[in-house]
Amino acid sequence: MKIISWNVNGLRAIAQKGFMDYVFQEAPDVLCLQEVKAFPEQVPKEIHSLKGYTAYWNPAQRPGYSGVATFVKNPPKKVELGIGIERFDSEGRVLMTEWNDFMLFNIYFPNGQKDATRLQYKMDFYESLLLHCNKLRKQGKKMIVCGDYNTAHFEIDLARPKENEDTSGFLPIERAWMDRWVENGFVDTFRHFNTEPHHYSWWSYRANARENNIGWRIDYHFVTDDLIPRLKKALIQPEIFGSDHCPVVLEIE
User: Fold this and answer.
1) Which end of the chain is more exposed for a tag (fewer CB within 10 A), N or C?
2) DSSP per-residue codes, 34-72
């Protein structure tokens, strides 16, 4: 099963940048998109009714903001929007599809760079998600949690760690939550296969950052540790353009 996660930074915009060619070439079983920035009816028809796929949407209440969408070849047995907390769910950040033996969360985690209020919102979201997932684990659920986490975990996960120690996305409190996420049994699938530096999934549009590979790895597929034996491949596709993020791929048995 191939699961692709991609923060498209506007689905209507990326539709003009080879998006459909990419999807049909990769032919994922599940495609999880973040920051779609559109209601379903605003998306071009050829994407809204993507051939061979069924789409599930969780747009934000605010127009042109946030939102996630999951495209699947085979319908899941269950779909849920949000985590049951209105202050988060109104921003269209979480879409869960459940399959026979695991749950797949497509999540656009908050960005904390705007101000202290948004940083606290981000940390509250992190904590609420961890509580939500731990309840599901106690029920025996296996999980894949993919999306734009908006935090680089370790120094190896961004090009300039020292210069960004005081920047949201690499703050000690954000990284400490990532530590707790791992301590609670979630595994970074890319690092399970690849421990090399210089692999990033997001680049600023400024100062030729992408051309110079001055990036951050903030897009992940984490899985619960009981899924480790089924992992086949995890990779990043920096050669795919159209957004300031690139797709990240997980293949699982």
Assistant:
1) C
2) E---S-GGGS-HHHHT-TT-EEEEE--SSTTS--EEEEE
Token pair 């690092």: residue: 191
Answer whether 96's CB lies under 8 Å from 104's CB.
yes
Residue 124 annotated to the active site: no
Count helices and strands in the chain by DSSP H and E runs: 7, 14
User: Which strands form 2-7's sheet, in the order they lie side by side?
Assistant: 54-58, 68-72, 30-34, 2-7, 248-252, 231-236
The domains of the chain, with CATH numbers, are 2-252 (3.60.10.10)
Which structure tokens are listed for 175?
A: 């990284």
**Where are the alpha helices (H) located in 80-226, listed in sequence order?**
86-89, 116-138, 172-183, 189-193
- Per-residue pLDDT reduced to its tens digit, 91-123: 999 999 999 999 999 999 999 998 999 999 999
Give the integer Cα–Cα distance in Å for 208 and 236: 20
Catalytic residue among 148, 157, 188, 219: 148
pTM of the predicted model as reported, rounded to 2 decimal places: 0.97
**In the block, residue with structure tokens 């191939």:** 2
Residue in the block written with tokens 């979201």: 125
Q: How far apart are CA 250 and CA 144, in angstroms?
A: 10
Among candidates 176, 182, 180, 174, which has minimal Cα distance to 224? 182
The one-letter amino acid code at 32 reads C
